[in-house]
Structure formats: C-alpha cells, structure tokens
Amino acid sequence: DAGVIQSPRHEVTEMGQEVTLRCKPISGHNSLFWYRQTMMRGLELLIYFNNNVPIDDSGMPEDRFSAKMPNASFSTLKIQPSEPRDSAVYFCASRRGASGGGAYEQYFGPGTRLTVT
Amino acid sequence: GDSVTQMEGPVTLSEEAFLTINCTYTATGYPSLFWYVQYPGEGLQLLLKATKADDKGSNKGFEATYRKETTSFHLEKGSVQVSDSAVYFCALSDRGTGGSYIPTFGRGTSLIVHP
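The joint structure predicted for all components is written out below.
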C-alpha cells in the first residue's frame, strides 16, 4: 500500500492567496483527519470525516478554512485568503473503522509544509 | 473534555541509557491508548498501542502498560540508540457524544540520544 498521500509537499504563497492542500487516504479506511502542527501550538486537530461526512470541525480556526471530502479517496483543505499565521505543517491521517474505530491507529501522510509570506 | 499530559522535553540521554517518558490522561470513557513517533521531516507513525487496562504494548524495544488506576501510559526502553532520537506523542482515542472515536494527542516529547 502506498500509504496516505499528500500534495504538495511544500507550498510557498503570498498573503491573500488561496491555498489548496490535497490528501488521498489509504484505501478501505473510513475516517480521515486534518491536523496542523506548529512549534507554538503543537499538533491540532482541525476536522475529521467519517464515511466522507464531516463529524467535527470545531478545530477549524476560522471561516477562512474549509475542508471537503467528495469521495472516499480524496479530501481537500482550503485556506482563502491565506495569512502568515497559517504557516505550519499540515498533516492528513486516515483510520479504518468509522464507528468502531477506537482501537485502530491513525496513518499519517508526510505532511505539507505551508509558508505564507 | 479528554486530555493527555506528557513530560516536557527535550529529554537528553547517552546511548544505552534507560528511557522513561511519562504520560497521563483524563477521559470520560474507556479509551484506547497509543504512542506515536515522529522523525524529522516525516509524519507521525504508530509505535505501540494498548486497548484495555493492564495491556502492555511493545515494539522495537519500547514498552508501555495501560494503567487505569493511575490513568497513565508511560513509555519505556531499556537501552536507547542514537536512531531513537525523535519526537514521541502519547495519544488516546475515546468515544465522543456522537458515537465516533475522537483522537486526543499530547504535546510531544523530544528525545535526543548522544553517542
């Protein structure tokens, strides 16, 4: 299995621009998570989906952030407009077993390093 | 809500030293517990897990025991290597109000092993 795939691996953009991060979960996994990691705030859960449906988006920092999962094999995290404080590493993770998934581990992608200047 | 507390790092050790990284948790339900490791420039990967009280998870010489009475899941290794240098995250997965299993992570503990 290829694991969780994220693209791009690095993104540098100017303040005010739209940024779209992409994720392909492991085939057969029912849950998908988006995280943000910074030195100051550590690892933050932004949103997670079960069976393509958003379950909890309470971690999304503000309306500039949005996430979609149009099908079981693809998800996007969009920031519009981007700001310098959005600079971070964004991880996507997937997990099997949406409803009974408590005992299952998450599989993380390699991350997208976003720099907003 | 649920929370995970880890000892602050960095933890600096010499090769072959004994390692302990403390982790305690609070949870409303009966969570599963995990240790993840993150190497520089990579995503987190599972190191070990335990799903019920008194279970011991182990992998690559690392061990952790699920202690419900002390709500702890401390990570140990008898003899660390330079290649163990990484950031270690304690995490739990607990059933939320909607029935879904929500992950909660600690802040991570950086381990530096010197030759």
